[in-house]
Design a protein that fits this description.
Layout: H1 6-24, H2 33-53, H3 73-78, E1 86-90, E2 93-97, E3 117-119, H4 128-141, E4 147-152, H5 158-169, E5 180-183
Parallel strand pairs: 1-4, 4-5
Antiparallel strand pairs: 1-2, 2-3
Helix pairs in contact: 4-5
Length: 188
């Protein structure tokens, strides 16, 4: 083994002191805290921005109510049978129906038993204007009625269903027609 000279020992001691001071200063480690602060701020900014820019649509739908009557005979004398207005959207247009012949005044072509229908327009689009005028006639006859049932085939576009809901809720003069719209089964 060779002996180390005095100058070699000095050089090793200086190198060791330099390395120890560098380790004490943290020069050998990466400080991640500033990077994490930046990433956290960017994420919070993106979340707030996305929430403000994201448009979420709410469609109000009324659930059917279940109630039990007392079964008294006096209740049935004063009470009209419910209209149960149902608008069905098909591939050929709209069909409007009511329960127990309650729509008697608005039969199609004044033929008793023939449900009123609104066929598609000549350009192949749904005729919301004719549907609205038919609903206004029904509302004049049943002024206190507020609910209607909306039914549609599964292949009907979403925009058409929303359009019918708008027509059911308000007339051409923006007066309410049937604001409580219930969905029947089958609408997807």
């Amino acid at each position: 083994m060779t002996a180390m000279t005095a100058s070699g020992r000095k050089r090793l001691r200086r190198e060791r002191e330099r390395l120890e001071s560098a380790l004490e200063d943290g020069g050998g480690e990466i400080n991640l805290v500033p990077y994490l602060d930046i990433v956290t701020n960017i994420l919070m900014f993106l979340i707030v921005t996305a929430q403000a820019m994201l448009t979420v649509a709410n469609i109000e739908v009324v659930l059917p109510e279940y109630s039990q009557s007392s079964g008294g005979a006096d209740d049935k004398k004063d009470e009209k049978p419910p209209l149960n207005l149902t608008v069905t959207i098909t591939g050929k247009g709209f069909t409007v129906a009511g329960s127990d012949g309650a729509l008697g005044v608005v039969y199609q072509d004044d033929i008793p038993g023939k449900l009123p229908t609104v066929p598609m327009a000549a350009d192949g689009r749904y005729d919301f204007t004719k549907l609205q005028s038919l609903l206004v006639k029904i509302k004049l006859r049943f002024a206190k009625e507020e609910s209607a049932i909306l039914s549609a085939n599964p292949d009907i576009p979403y925009e058409t269903i929303i359009g019918v809901m708008d027509v059911l809720r308000a007339g051409p003069d923006k007066n309410p027609l049937f604001p409580k719209v219930l969905f029947s089964t089958g609408i997807q």
